[in-house]
Input
Amino acid sequence: MELSSLQQLTWDNKVRKGYNTTDVPLEVCMLQVKAAATFTSWRKGQDRLGEELADTVLYVASIAEMLGLDLEHEVTAKIEKNSARPD
Output
């Protein structure tokens, strides 16, 4: 799946279900919660590690949409910037 499609799907789901679509600080805090849950799942060797990591990605995608960012473009630009750095 392309990041642009993922971004739109996560946004559409938030709107359809009446989830937060305006409070950026709240979403960033929730992203931290999801990232912490991913770490906890990994540390404890839990089966839901993949699900927790997916939740983290979904939060990032929805925040990008909330902010009007093209996440696919941003990720591509960041990969190019990182690859140009000296070793």
Summary: The mean pLDDT is 96. The helical segments are 3-17, 24-43, 49-66, 71-84. The chain is about 75% helix and 0% strand. Residues 44 and 70 are 34 Å apart (CA to CA).
